[in-house]
Amino acid sequence: MKKYLVLVALTGVLAACGGGGGEKKEGDSTTTTTASTGGADLSSNPDYVKGVDMIQRYDCLTCHEVATKKIGPAYQEVANKYAGVDTAVDYLAKKVIAGGSGVWGAIPMGAHPNLSLDSAKALVKYVLLLKTK
User: Fold this and answer.
1) pTM of the shown model
2) Spacing of C-alpha 87 from chain mean position
3) Which of 35, 98, 99, 119 suits 113 as a labelling partner, its CA being 20 to 30 A distant?
């Protein structure tokens, strides 16, 4: 039951913070430290902490959610599909920057050309931590 409540809380926090596409406002904070995938505490994982911060500052939550398909796939779907793939971080980071379509359906993901490769890799590392399988 506790894991279910954490999942609901995490999804609610992420949904409430997304869609603006702008910078995070002063005073905003994230208290989400538990992954919705098995209850593992990720608060000390730098990839997780950085990723949570970045998805709130960028437009990621306009199209994606952690556990539910929105316009694009859920982060957990992406993490499960690319789990164990050695080239996943580089491949997905380039996809985030270039955009594209066809892998997850007909709706294209918009390009993010102003995002640096290092920032895109940080976002991808966060997403890959959310695997459920």
Assistant:
1) 0.69
2) 18
3) 35
Q: CB neighbours of 83 closer than 8 A, spacing ≥ 6?
A: 128, 131, 133
Q: What is the pLDDT of residue 44?
A: 84
Residue 111 counted as domain residue: yes
In a domain, 85, yes or no: yes
Asked if the structure places residue 133 within a domain, the reply is no
Q: Quote the CA–CA distance of 114 and 118 in Å, as a whole number.
A: 12
Long-range contact set of residues 4-7: C-beta below 8 Å, sequence gap at least 24: 6/34, 6/36, 6/39, 7/36, 7/67
CATH number assigned to the domain comprising residue 64: 1.10.760.10
Q: Is 133 helix (H, G, I), strand (E, B) or coil?
A: coil
- In tens, the pLDDT along 46-68 reads 999 999 999 999 999 999 999 99
Domain residue limits at 89:
2-128
Tell me, yes or no, whether 28 lies in a domain. Answer: yes
- The answer to whether the CB of 82 falls within 8 A of the CB of 73 is no
Instruction: Please tell me the total count of domains within the chain.
Output: 1
